[in-house]
Amino acid sequence: MKMKIFFSSIILVAIMAACTHPAVPEDAKKESRLPHIYPDYTEVTIPCNICPLNFAVRENASEVVARFTFPGGEIAYGKGQNVLIDEEEWKLMLKAAKGKSMQVEVFTKEGERWKAYKPFNIYVAKDSIDSYISYRVIQPSYVAYEKLSINQRNLTNFDEKEIYNNMSVSTEKTGQCINCHSYQNFKTDNMLFHMRQGYGGTMLVVNGELHKIDLKTEQTLSAGVYPAWHPTKRLIAFSTNSTGQSFHTKDLNKIEVQDTESDLILYDIDKNEVSIISELEDELEVFPTWSPDGKKLYFCSAHFEYKNDSIAHETEMIQRYKEVKYDLYCADFNPDTKEFSNVEMIYNAADSLGQSVTLPRISPDGKYLLFAQAEYGCFHVWHADADIYMMDLKTREVQRLDAVNSPRSESYPTWSSNGRWIMVDSRRDDGNYTRPLLAYFDRQGKAHKAFAVPQKDPNFYTFFLRSYNRPEFMVEPVGITPQEFAKKAKEEAVKAKYAQR
Amino acid sequence: MRFSLKYAYLSAFIVLAYLLLPTMNADYLYTIQDNDVFISGHTFMMDTVQNEGGWLAWIARFLTQFFYHPWLGSTILILFWVAIYWITIRMFSIKDKWCFVALAIPVFLLYDLLSYGYWIYYAQAPGFPFVPTFLALFALLYTWGIIYLTRNLHISWTLKGLIAITPLAIILYISHLLWPTSWNLNYHSKNGILTTLTDKNFRHELRMYRALDEFRYDDVLKEMPANNETPPTNLMVLYKNIALLHTGRLTDLFKTNNCGINPFVTDSTLSSRIRITQLGAPLIYYQFGQFNFAYRRAMENSVTYGQSFRNLKIMALCSVFNQEFDLAAKYLQMLKTSLFHRDWAIEHERWMYNSTLFMQSRDFQAIAPMIDDDANTLDNDEGRCEQYLLDHYSALRHASSPQLEETIMCLSLWRKDAFAFCIHFYDYVQHHPQESIPPLYQEGAILHGNTDLSPIDFSRFKFDTFVADRYNRFVQDYNQLTQQGLSNEEMGRRLQPTYGDTYWWYYYFYTDFIIY
Question: Taking CB atoms and an 8 Å cutoff, what residues of chain B touch A144?
Fold first, then answer.
């Protein structure tokens, strides 16, 4: 181990000699506070394989210098008001600090004087993170959409590529919406996403082979919407939804997305068959997710009785939108017979707390369940009060994960494949644009401070006018090219059959 | 020195271009840049260049922003056209007297730019004033290069053509491999070359928008036609009424031509698209203090037709009024990187740190009284801004300011909503017991007050004598013309000189109110 550090230090010194680094000011005036940096990487715990945490210093400064001190060395960076870290040096820094921490001291030049801010630490976990994440890139629009893409990002560097771009098949008259990308067990040889309107259908990749399926049947409410791959069988649970939008005249949540009806279905890939899991009257079932052993299906459901026959359901839903609150349910599943049984409410959020639960996700070890919770409704990405909560599935105790939450919306929680990292969508920057955040989840079940997925340009998020939707971890990149998806998209979808359960 | 015709042709073209561009169409050019955007920095550049022809668009967008000063932008564009003229002459070795032929491309480009009309709101073609010019310039330079390189080769023109096409084909093929979407061109310019894409009101609308945006309400009113020979569009009527509202004269709405028409363009693709929602809804909602709807429409228009300075500004303003300061800072930060909207952004950024400055601003002074204290509701304008405003204010029960009170009274008349107006009139009379009632309100009450449409009986209400007398004369004249068997249209024409400024005339004879 010592030899490793020794050689790493030698390589580091060699690289440093080859690169230009700013001098650290010696006579800086000490400040007792932390510097304002963006993104906020102060006191965060990061994976040992993540790309450099470039940041901008948002102080009234003409120049900045940041000194990184780690076991075996120190390096300073600074370019204008930004701290841009060399990727090769960063890897060596991570290697040296793995399981320990590095200290960052920020210096700013204001006028002719330098200031030295209170140092902060960046803790480097021994645990790595899945190399890839994917997300939908979309403007935070209301009804209109134009260019949408599902992108994959390599977290170990700054590479980002499109998995699919709707403009490859959209024309001026036939726009196409894409959504709900999903993977089986974090691998991409079994994955899916939906396309709606132009060339509509579900793009389904099974064992690396691409299919286009139409999941809408006469007996079901809609095509599949929110998906959940069964971890071991070739089955996918979906919600089916009748969704509408309306707009707040004053509330800063701005948009309400509501389901006037929703059910759950099961899609059998081998038989190309859809069957209904649950379509209870007065229940709005949605957001299915499987336990890691595939023996339980968790989902959310709101009890909502329409009371006024003289108006459309959609109108009544709009009038009573704050009454729509989802609870958390669990059903047993027999993978061999594909039968569901023993439906149980495991978290009564609506009646007991006056809250609404959405987007449940279970940790890979099956111990914890993450979900988003807010006062009402099912579309928490637009609800400023939405926070991430965690249930201990053994004790069923629920706690709010304050380390990952902010006063603004947090939603779409998900786990990395090793269960050590959480990713959420957050609107903490400005309330309107969602950004993917990562947080360490230690072996004691404690979540650590969340931080934004790093970008090469630290000001990228400030100038980027699109949101990141539904971030998902992947252990490998998607192998199918955008051209192949586009070609398949133009083909006719194979209709799924309905099977009576 | 020998007189050269090529200079004469060029001079004539330059004079013509300056006449047609910054002299006669300054507001058109200003609107073009206002409908586009250029943000300095890596993020915007990458976002632009990743689309088809992205680099071209990025450079074109950079230059388009110079139309903020129409003379400056025009000069840059004309310089490119001069270059095209010179290259054409040199390339084809055109003799002096035939040099006017070399103006064919610049003249077409000039015509093309001026003929966009309403398409400027719908063309998904960032930097479109410069893109065709760049393409023409590239094509000329490329052809010139091929001619130069093959000048000593004794081969046929067909073979020279093949030599010219081959590198282009290779570039296109490689781009297809590298950028998967590049075969599906999503650069939508305008339709048609010779169809009419504008009407007489178009430029009035552009000037009214800018005046409204700059709170020059009197200038908004000046743009309304003085007579009825050219009926205004509904959008102009909306702009006009907003100006009246903010100058305390909304009760004059029927005295200032409230009979709007749809824009008239012969291009059917365009005419079916033209909506107030895209033409001016964000600013209109903002002026009414409807910040969420203004923000929404600015966002939706940005998503569908591309980001623009005007949308960024509206989103920033709405965010400031909504006290979403981080969001406002984001948009202002972007605007601060621009060449010509930087000062605007810096000025408005101060509002967030100095509430006194904000409250003293013309925006706050004009718009704050329009903010109603009704509870939040879920609603939708269904893409019909004008209808939404008429419905919303007619239905509003409580006015928290004199401006809002005037709005709900006048908009319920504008909507011809007798039921809503009578309720508002009753409230008005209760709240202003000692004050004289504006004649317009009396016109509404005297017409609707004694009918089944009214929930309240106004038969014992004492109207001003001149209003009552005029109404009686109107009824008399109306009945007389009816007995003559005239059509409603003809009756309207005959009664307009005498009663065209009244609500009664509007109520009976303006029947073509089509929301678009």
Answer: 300, 303-304
